[in-house]
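Appendix B, example 12.
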Amino acid sequence: MIPFFVWEMIKGNTIAGGCILLISSLTDFLDGLLARRFKWTSDFGKLLDPIADKLTQTAVSIVLILRLRAYWYFFAFMIFKDFVILVFGAFLLKQGMKFKGASFIGKTSTFFFYGGMLLILFFPGMPRAMIFTILVIAVLLALISGLKYIPSLFVLKKDLTNSAWEREP
């Protein structure tokens, strides 16, 4: 749905873009809920879902850099964080590790990012202080979520049980 979101945003149609992002968010949530509820999980899904989230968040961030230029540094941070996590995840995969699944803080961060960006898209006349607050909270949650993966660097030498990653059999 990323190309459709970007297209509507480029056309200046924030309501349509917001609706597409909302549908994307809800289907992502439903997919995860059903996968956990009925044990329809797979290693491929556990790998692909966060990549799709990062690509969506990056697209949203790039588009909103163009629409909310005064807040570009918030979105640049989000893009940088997602890039680092993708590179770091690829490195760990190369080391024979696999992703166990998203953490609570990671899910919270993603939920707040989507929710906050939807508010910004659906209410373009929102006060600057409110936009700033939403972006600060989104960045803080993203930072906490990203920092959670640092211990995984040491997993290569330590016990894997406290990490979001585990070795391939």
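The chain has seven helices and two strands. The domain at 2-167 is CATH 1.20.120 (Four Helix Bundle (Hemerythrin (Met), subunit A)).
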